[in-house]
Each structure stands twice: as structure tokens, then as C-alpha cells.
Design a protein that fits this description.
The chain is of the alpha/beta class. It folds into three domains: 15-129, Immunoglobulin-like; 149-409 and 434-519, Glycosidases (TIM Barrel, Alpha-Beta Barrel); 535-644, Sandwich (Immunoglobulin-like). The protein is built from 15 helices and 31 strands. Strands 9-12-15-19-20-21-22-23 form an eight-stranded parallel barrel, surrounded by six helices.
Length: 651
Amino acid sequence: MDKPSVRHDVSRITDHDTYLFKQGNHFRLYEKLGAHITSVDGEIGTYFAVWAPNAEKVSVIGDFNDWDNKACPLSVRWDGSGIFEGFIPGASHGLIYKYHIVSRDNDYSVDKGDPFATHWETPPKTGSIVWDTSYEWKDEPWMETRARNNALNAPLSIYEVHFGSWRRKPDEGNRWMSYREMAEFLPGYVRDMGFTHVEFLPIMEHPFYGSWGYQTTGYFAPTSRYGTPQDFMYLIDCLHQAGVGVILDWVPSHFPSDEHALTYFDGTHLFEHQDPKKGFHPEWNSYIFNHGRYEIRAFLISSALYWLDKYHADGLRVDAVASMLYLDYARKEGEWIPNMYGGKENLDAIYFIKRMNEVVYKEYPDVQTIAEESTSWPMVSRPAYVGGLGFGTKWNMGWMHDTLEYFRMDPIHRKFHQNLLTFNIWYAFFENFILPLSHDEVVYGKGSLLNKMPGDDWQKFANLRLLFGYMFGEPGKKLLFMGGEFGQWDEWYHEKSLDWHLLEIPAHQGLQKWVQDLNALYRTEPAMHEYDFSGNGFEWIDFHDAESSVLAFVRKAETTGDLILVAANFTPVPRPNYRFGVPRAGYWTEMLNSDSKIYGGSGYGNFGGQETSPVPAHGRYHSISLVLPPLGIVFMKNEGPAGMCEASPQA
């Protein structure tokens, strides 16, 4: 473009758009603000629009005009929206740009990236890029059936992935894979392992790689570290074609302080709260969104819809919800400001969360929103119209903490702490819970899952198989961070690949096979997933035998009438002839046994199944005698008709 100029008679924004924007009710802002390639009077160019209500002047700068902040000024709209706009003929796909903003009230001026940029330069560069995001999707079969795949009564087994460290190219300087290179490996691996969904740690553009994406600057752009927007679309397309759903981590709570990004955008605290007691996060050294400002709500909800719309995402896992709910989160007394009623609840953020979930489910009823919420806030995964926050599901952080604390113990001490395993069931159905063994549990000196386990190497693997078996047996959807499925020894480090060479070792192969078979059981047996969120699908058999560290329960299916008995022995002592009362007579098939030799176990088992006997036990007329393997768990299925269930004997 030889002589850049700006036309001020061109607009994509209507009066109704600005009306909705100022109300906080415009949820497709990405169609209006940002940089949009368009044709005016037969000439191709780019329309730019940016919200900067306290700016005196805004101009578009870039290589195309030698970064001259006087060459391409935008004009402010007359309607008081604070939006500056203009059309630059000749500006086209691939053009690198920023906004030069001069504040109205002080001498502040700054060059900012576009909050609505759909593509950015690869960090440490900070320019926005004009980009045509057109893509021809080929995932129609998935999109047509994903309501069934994402339903609350469907199996949901999530493989959590940090993109830059799942698999690297050691022969090419340990570089990470691109989106398209990952598409050659990840979809097939996840499909073959039996996971239903992939969850990516934040893929949105972020300046600091070591933040794992949780310090987001580009709320409408996948990071360019791994390729273009179309490259990421291609990866999602391939995952969908492999029958794998995609969940994206999304961070609407806070953002980093980088000068080129959102902070102090127009010489005022536009996106963040002005008062640091509300607007600055002391733990994360980042700024907190002002969720009480209507335009910010519209910005963030537009971001949520953008990933569901343009990238066909199947769900959003919302990070750090607890930090949004509480005004005193990570703050000492005197470091926070109470709400209008004197409480610590963040009323603005609560409204935003409810509104976001309402809009998402209205526009895309076949997706799920997931809360990472670590407190006892009630009804997180209940609809807003009944007083809930409106999420579809919630991570069960209490289950994660208690279960890992139990498994870290030497088995000799476990009999004194069996309540760590059983307590979860007393609140398991208050929310739609996901049971997470996430990235947060294998970093910062916590050790890998395998290294958390006590005992020698054989016991470590047996314990980890038992942990995975217990997680898949219990009610709740499942989440496992990458590397755990084959027993990564080292804790996760974002600068290196997983240790895939470990799969040359039989013990690691066996563990991987165990996770694969657990996924298969979970997906194919309605009893294992149909009632994940209801007590109708769960029945304790025995949780009293703490002395032996044995637990047993039954999972039930309404559609088939099937029953699956899950019995676990949390000690290295084999327990032959262990009798359990069961709710139905007949033959019980051993579906899975973590001590099978194909998984690296010692081979204790039940010869494929056992027949019940008319011997009362655990308050039931019929019982079954099982071999409980050391540090093992077995899954036994009875396929008799539901009408054969028997009442318990009267006392």
C-alpha cells in the first residue's frame, strides 16, 4: 500500500449495535469490532474499529505506513459509544498493525494490540495481524450428533493437554509441534485410548509461555506459536472427525500487565477495576476484569461465543471461578472492599457468570461449560433460573485432594483414613462433578502421579492402577492430565516433551493398556456413566471394613438394568474368599481386574467370574465370594433382568 489513507464514511456498526454494546448485551462483538477485510466501492481494504472511550486520538500504525501515528487516524463515532473506526483501502490479509492511542485527560500515549485481533505475531513480538479466518469445515457428522456426545448422561472422559509439551521434535532442537503436525498424532492417540474429549490448557494468545496460557492477551486468537487460526481449526476438525470433542480452557477472571495488551488501555482502567483492592490480583500479578462494566461483560461473553462459533469448540472450562466469586480471594483483612451488603461475595462477577452461562446455553445448547471452582459455593452446576451459577459441570477439587492424600499414604496407615475415600459420596450428587487428576497436581514439586504412590516400583504401578480404577468406578465424569496414562516418572515441565520412550517398558505399557480398557468399560457400559450425577446409579455394598482397607459399591443402569460391582483392596495383602452381599443373584462376570498380568499385575483373579450363593451378607440375601488382588480393583457385571433385584432381609 503506497499511500495509506483512511475513509471515515464506512462503518459496520449500527445504532442498534452500540445500543446493545452499552447495555452489555451485544454478544457477537467480534463481528463488529477489530479488523475486518471488506470491499468498499469495489476496493478491497480493512475496516478497523476499537473501543477507547477516553482517547483523544486513535490511529492505525504498522509496517504499511512506517509506523507513522499521524498517517491513518480513525474517527470517533457520534453516538457516545467511545468506538473509533475507519476503512483503510488496500490494507489486506497479513498486515501487521497496532492502535496508537492518545489519552484525553493526560499526556499518556501508547501503542496497543487489538483486543479483538483474530491473529497475533508470535511472541515476543506483539503486533496484531489482519486475518481472514475463513475455513471449510468437514466435521458435520460430529456437529450433528454432539448433543448426544456432550450430554450429562453420556460418558465424558477428558484428556487434558498442554499443547507445547505433549510431544516435541527432539531431532529439531526440541521444538514444539505445530497445530497441523499435532493433527497427525493427537486425534488418533486420543481415539485409540478411548477418551471422549481433549481439553487444551489455554490456547488463546499469551505473551509468557511459562504461564501455560493462563495469562491471556488475545481473547479472540489462538496462539501463533503453533500456527495460524486455520491451522488450529484444522486440528479441531481432525479431532471431531476422529470422534473426539474439544474443550478449551478460558480465563475471564484476569489478564497480564503487558503494556501492549488490555491494561490501562486508553489512559484509564478500561478493562480492569481502578482500585487495586478490586482490580489487581496479588498472587498472579495480573489485573482483574471489571465485571460490573457492561461493555466488559459484552467483550467477555463475545469471546466465549467466538470459540464456540468460529472454532466449533464443544465446551469451555472456566478457570479460577473461585477468584471471581469472592472479593477477599487471596487477600488479607483490609486488602479488599466489601460488597454493598457488607459481604465478601463479588456481586458483579456472579451476575456475569450467570449471564455468560445463560447466553452460551441459549446459543449453543449442545455444549458444556465447566467450572474450576474450589470452594463450597452452592449450586455451581445448577441453572441460573433456580439460583445456580449455570455451569454444566464442576471440577470436584475436594475429591482430588482427599483421594491423593489417601493414596500417598503407606497402606499400613490407610485403615485410619478410609473416610478420605468415603466422604466424597456424601456430597457427590450436590453438583455435576468431574473428577480431575489435572496438571495442577503434577507441578511445582508435587511429583508425578506415579511418584506420589508409596512402595517399590511394583507397588507404585499397582497403586496408580488402583487409583485410576477407583476414579473410573466412582460417580462423576473423568479428567486425566497427559502423561498420567502411561506413568510419567518426572513431574510435568512445560519446556519438554512427555517421556514417550517409557512405553518401551512393559510396566508403562500395562498401565496405558489399563487406562485404555477403563475408558472402554466406562464408555460402553451405561451403568458406569448414565447416573454419574444421581444417587439412583450408586449403592454402597461395604464401606465399613477400614481394618482391611476394602471398599465396594454397585453402579447401576436404568436403560439396561445392568449392575456393576466395583470392589477395591487398598493394601498389598491379597484377600481371597472375600464375601460381598449383592443386590441380585446369578453369575457376575469379571469385566476388569487391575492385577491382571496384561496390566503388569501379579495375576490374582476370579477365573472370569463367580456365581452368587444364598448366603446373607451386608444386609442382602445373596452374596458373592471374590478374590481381591493386592492393591487391586475388580469390576464385576451382572446382566440379569432388573426385576431379579432382591430386597434386603428384614432385621
